Target: nitric-oxide synthase (NADPH)
Amino acid sequence: MFKDPDQTIQILVLKEVHTPNGLNSFWEPHERLPEASIRILFTRYLDITTPPTSNFLLLLAQYTQHKEQKEKLENLAKKDELGFIRT
Model:
């Protein structure tokens, strides 16, 4: 997909607007992220030091096609920051 980490890309967000004619969907540039290289986006904007939230893990679980991966994500979402399963 991206062979050159210095290739410039633009992050787009899918916007959906309800109109009398139905739902209109369109892509537009992310309002807070500039056009930049993959290298810049990963070094300046991606936070890998903070664990993902439970809500984010559950969101990812909704999109996986694999039952085992879905179960793992759902189990991770149940754990607190110390690794204990929430009840």
